[in-house]
Write a structure and sequence with these properties.
The protein is mainly alpha-helical. Helix content is about 75%, strand content about 0%.
Length: about 350
Amino acid sequence: MAHPTLPPSTPPAPPATANSAVATGFFRHLHTPHLVAGYPVTGRQVVFGLLLVFCLTPWASPPVALALGLALAQTLGNPFASQTKAATAKLLQYSVVGLGFGMNAHAAVQAGRAGLLFTVVSIFGTLTLGYFAGRWLGLGRRVTHLISCGTAICGGSAIAAVGPVLRAKDEEMSVALGTVFVLNAIALFAFPPIGHALAMTQQQFGLWCAIAIHDTSSVVGAAKVYGDQALQVATTVKLARALWIIPVSIGTALIFKQKGVKIKIPYFIFGFIAAMLLNTYVPALHPLGPVLVALAKIGLTLTLFFIGAGLSAKTVRAVGDRPYVLGVLLWVVISSASLYVILHTV
């Protein structure tokens, strides 16, 4: 039987090092396909697989998974970029629904009620500040609104929902997503140490995460590191916040005078609510709850690994300076203001 022909491989040039000949040879070796059981496999695919398996173990926390993904993206690159990009959104949604099986509806209502005023004020405040800051920086209206919505509501999910309503171009979507994902990565590492340094309670930290961290994945990841109660508060408040995608998308269509656009509804949030209600009112499901929650936490860890693996140096550089300035400005203001209010009122 004839062996399959190996596809041609032209790996990118490696970074300059003191021993460039050795580095070049090693780099090319990891990118060159080799036949394994009749299938072409590259070394970096093996590395990706090993890291993926490690993320399934108890030793891989969400920050560790994100760091591993980032390290892979900056060195060997993600060999399955298109597959992980397609899987990330679904995996996050299933993981969030799974977390619902570990929550009590009564406690969630109390947490959501506590975060309602923070949510309303912070969303409208962020969108208003973003509008004026974007004009000051000379950014386009669509990019400014996308970054503002991502900061105000729920990161990449909000951008993905509002983008089609704006009829935003691909490059405008990429700039907004790149800005939000980079700041998400920073927040996941920075928030837990800040919370411990300020001796924040579980409820305070969970509420702060839900308001001040953009994407649901990083909110849940940071809160999970801090504690179970913080995780419950953060998840509930963040998902209640994510429902604001709907009115903000409708408002966007009216303000930007877009007709005939389709509003993207985050239906997975209703799955989370259903799981929470089942866990609260169907005692027969209680033995299954811990298993589903454990699987959901593993799914979240894998989600953050995939997100990190997608943040290549090229992606980071392509955003440019001014969108980062806008993103950092909005993030610093909402983080500082919400932190001050939470520490003095909650």
